[in-house]
Amino acid sequence: MTTTPPSPPISVSKIEPSTLDVSVGPQHPGSGHMRILIRIDGDYIVSADPDIGYVHRGCEKIAEYRNYVSNIPHLERPCIADAIHLNWGYVLPIEELQGVEVPPRGKYIATIAAEMNRIMSHLYGTAIMAGVFSGHTTIFMWGFGDRDLFIELAEMLTGARLTYSFLAPGGPRRDLPFGFEDRLTKLLDYFERRIPEYDRMFFHNPTIVARAKGVGVLTREDAMKLGVVGPVLRASGVEYDVRKAEPYGAYDDLEFEIPTFKEGDSWSRFLVRFEEMKQSVRIIRQALKKMPKGPIARKAPLVAPEGEATGRVESSRGEIAYMVMGDNSDKPYRVKIMNGSFRNLMGIPFLLRNVHVGDMPIIYGSLDYWPVEADR
Amino acid sequence: MTQATLSREEELVGQLRSQFPEAIKEAKVDRAHRITVVFEKDHLLDIATFMRDKLGFDHVKGVAGVDFPTHKKIEVLYFAGSYSRPQIQDFIVILKAELPRDNPAIASAVSVWPSTHYHERETFEMFGVQFVGHPDLRKLLTLDNWEGPPPMLKDVKFPEMGQR
After folding, report:
1. Which residues of B touch A60 (CB under 8 A)?
2. Distance, in angstroms, between A269 CA and closest chain B CA?
3. Radius of gyration, CA atoms only, chain B
4. Residues B153, B67: contact at Cβ < 8 Å?
5. Yes or no, beta carbons of A1 and B149 under 8 Å apart
6. How far is the C-alpha of A136 from the C-alpha of A280, rounded, in Å?
7. Cα B30 to chain center, whole Å?
């Protein structure tokens, strides 16, 4: 058996007389602990080396010890702001291995829950990663206040505020509760009235535009080369969304657009999330209207046959793909998680070069990087 | 899914097979949108370059290791996808190489697909796979809190978590 080299007790590096190495963190920038080692020359960042792993908990190893269903709660923990998508991405390949097809109504319920989760996650990203990092406390209060209204409805639907464990192989656990559709429609009406206010207060606020426009530019070519994904990729002008590329759930029946921007700067990364929230409202309204009647779930076996399957969904931080390998037992032989945050990690050393130290929070915040999701 | 709808997948498999008749051991269509290609490990860079330049697979979604102690091998899987060609955005091509378990080594794909950088570092750390030519092959996630064999190997067991 091979062994990896032991961890060095202390790292030593040669530095130029004019530069200085600064350790930013380990800190909790609103989404989990991480550290970035930056080398600065005066007020400029010369290079950056993200040091991750502070919140690594071996999800993939744990998954080999738990049976398929009891893996759901811990595999959705890495990104509690986006639990439905982490849950859904894991369930899809299991259903493929077992040959279980979710009934149409189950797909619609999952789609509604996922889009509610996308709004919540983007509100969180706007409130903390964009708002607090740019010193804008009003958007922090607004974002969190409105997010909580969605959380209350998610609790009504699933029984939990954040970590829902809502989707099992075969379909969602519950049907829509009595009165849910009315409350959700009212909430969407309220949220749509709020959208222009958000726009004036934050997204087109001259102080935010001055801080974020033209900062941390990622060109279309670089974005594709680095393999970044999700809103970060779409802000650089690449039209890529799993909901369109390989539709799952009810997305095939629903009309929506993929917002993209050409600029690739921090401001357009904020704006992509803003536009996506509007599209999510549109998707939920259609799904409520088109929702078919019938069963919500099928019974799925506890065992998955031998073989491997890869399933993917579009999470709030980009495509999340799971490779699940079965071996005729009730536990997976291997689960591989490929999520948006780990792929967007490539953007951190790339963007934190030749920029002001003061621009670092804006660039980091615009990536909506979630360390726990990346570390798994 | 009917057979006729898999023509795009079949065409891609045919292209890869005819380009690399020796390097590719097995190429098959798993289902719509999914292709698995098992290749000789020495030809990774040739296949990757061809896929990037001629077929439009410009990024890798992830690199996975899988340990098979009974077969004395470690499989390395590259999940390649495309952003630049909208008509194949729905594909995931899984490139699979089989490495000997006592000395797992393969060329690093970073020079062709920079997006593999952190994924290869993770697979190095978790499975002990040496990616020859990687610019910065260091531990990534378990620095300072794990000594010993790579933790994702099957002989590293955690009995307190139950039976496997």
Report:
1. 126, 152
2. 18
3. 17
4. yes
5. yes
6. 25
7. 16
Per-residue pLDDT tens digits for A226-265: 999 999 999 999 999 999 989 998 998 999 999 999 989 9
CB A172 within 8 A of CB A296: yes
Using 50, 70 and 90 to split pLDDT, how confident is the model at B10? Answer: confident
Before A26, cis peptide (omega within 30)? Answer: yes
| One-letter identity of residue A292 | P
CA of B147, closest CA in chain A: separation in Å?
6
Residue type, A330: D
Closest residue in A to B117 (Cα–Cα): A346
| Residues of B whose CB is below 8 A from A58 | 151
The full DSSP string for A236-285 is TT----HHHHS--TTGGGS-------SS-SHHHHHHHHHHHHHHHHHHHH
A155-193: string of b/e by CB count within 10 Å (b at 16+)?
eebbeeebbbbbbbbbbbbeebeeebeeebeebbeebee
Query: What does B23-54 look like in DSSP terms, one character per residue?
Result: TEEEEEEEETTEEEEEE-GGGHHHHHHHIIII
Measured between beta carbons, the chain B residues lying within 8 angstroms of A1 are 101-102, 128, 149, 153, 155
Q: How far apart are CA B59 and CA B82, in angstroms?
A: 6
Pick the residue from chain B with its C-alpha nearest to A230.
Answer: B83
If we measure between CA atoms, which residue out of A11, A9, A35, A8 comes closest to residue A23? Answer: A35
User: What is the tens place of the pLDDT at every residue in A362-372?
Assistant: 898 898 889 89
Contact list in A for residue B139 (CB cut-off 8 A) is 4-5, 7
Which residue carries 């779930």 as its tokens?
A297
Kindly tell me the burial class for residue A271, based on how many C-beta atoms sit within 10 Å of its own C-beta (0-12, 13-18, 19 or more).
buried
Pairing of strands B34-39, B92-100: parallel
Q: For B122, which residue in chain A has the nearest alpha carbon?
A: A375
Put simply, the answer to whether A336 touches B64 (Cβ < 8 Å) is: yes
- Phi then psi dihedrals of residue B24, to 5 deg: -95, 120
DSSP states along A300-361: --S---SEEEEEEEEETTEEEEEEEEE-SSSS-SEEEEE-HHHHHTTHHHHHSSSEEGGGHH
Relative to beta strand A307-315, strand A318-326 is antiparallel
Q: Nearest CA to CA, how far is A301 from chain B (Å)?
A: 19
CA distances from A324 to A238, B6, B32, B89 (A): 28, 23, 17, 21
Model ipTM? 0.89
